[in-house]
Amino acid sequence: MKSRGLPVIALTSGEPAGVGPELCGRLLERQFPARLVILGDRELIAARTAALGMPMPFCDYRAETPPPAGQLEILHLPLAALSQPGRLDTANGRYVLSLLDRALAGCTSGEFAAMVTLPVHKGVIADSGVPFTGHTEYLAEKTGTKRVVMLLAGGGLRVALATTHLPLKDVADAITPDELETTLRIMHRDFIRKFGLPDPRILVAGLNPHAGEGGHLGREEIEVITPVLEKLRAEGMKLIGPLPADTLFTPPQLARGDGVLAMYHDQGLAVLKYASFGGGVNITLGLPIVRTSVDHGTALDLAGTGRADPGSLFTAIESAVDICARSAA
């Protein structure tokens, strides 16, 4: 949806005990070419920002009525229990999910053009009685999307993951030919659609040290990864690899591609977060909606201090706006 020519973007305020509610108040520090709608408890956000000396002028969200200049809109969804900075409470686990559900409903109906998510705490949601492994998996299930891809961008890098939140001992078994092929097809398609890259080049990491070293350090590269790459190259995709992960993230190698596919979470994201922490963005590829997110967690130790950096939030909003613009072109 657009309002006065601007995309309407839902922003979920995330875990109430974390830094999300106070980061909402920082939105007035920058102007965005979008109408931002904050989803969360009105009193929580007002109290958290006022306590930090940055009282936030806001109004209630009304879909057909854009806000007055200088005010932020809040779509009020009430907390289940009062929340204190830094103190998790399982009573609010379902409240956090209600923010995601409302944003998703708005994106699906066309009310919102995109959603930007502030961090949630996976453990407290799971402890509240709802199985939950992360935003990415939750949104995929809710939209009936069989396969999505987590991509983080920042510091000049785009890094996608073949597997996400898995114990390391389960990673090799999860990298099957079908799953890897599907991941690469989603990356290729969305690099064209969402990033405007007409002929994307993707660097693919090996799973094992030295990319298996010819089978001496593992056979996944020989038996799984290389056959998939050869199949897709025959269709015209530009895929480079499998490359040893310890040298993939060097300037000469990175210059050869538009993005990287890492085989597991820490293989790719440790490097990306070193290069861009505080200014990166998480983008979910493969969804029927546009969703971006900050690249950090709830930062419970910073909640209520005013020291949380809004840089990643700003970048996530800007990325959502850019993707919406490309989709509308």
Q: Report the CATH topology name of the largest domain.
A: Isopropylmalate Dehydrogenase
Number of helices: 12
Strand fraction:
15-25%
Based on DSSP secondary structure assignment, what is the total number of beta strands? 13
The topology string of helices and strands comes to: EEHEHEEHEHHEEHHEHEHHEHEEH
Overall mean pLDDT score? 93
**Tally of structural domains:** 2
Overall structural class, as computed from helix and strand content, comes to: alpha/beta
Radius of gyration: 20 Å
Name of the CATH homologous superfamily of the largest domain: Isopropylmalate Dehydrogenase
Give your account of this protein's structure.
- The protein is of the alpha/beta class and 329 residues long.
- It folds into two domains: 1-145 and 288-329, Isopropylmalate Dehydrogenase (3-Layer(aba) Sandwich); 147-286, Isopropylmalate Dehydrogenase (3-Layer(aba) Sandwich), CATH 3.40.718.10.
- It is 37% helix and 19% strand.
- The chain is built from twelve helices and 13 strands.
- Strands 1, 2, 3, 4, 5, 6, 7, 8, 9, 10, 11, 12 and 13 form a 13-stranded mixed β-sheet that branches.
- Strand 9, helix 8 (220-234) and strand 10 (238-243) form a beta-alpha-beta unit.
- The longest helix has 18 residues, at 311-328.
- It is globular.
- The mean pLDDT is 93.
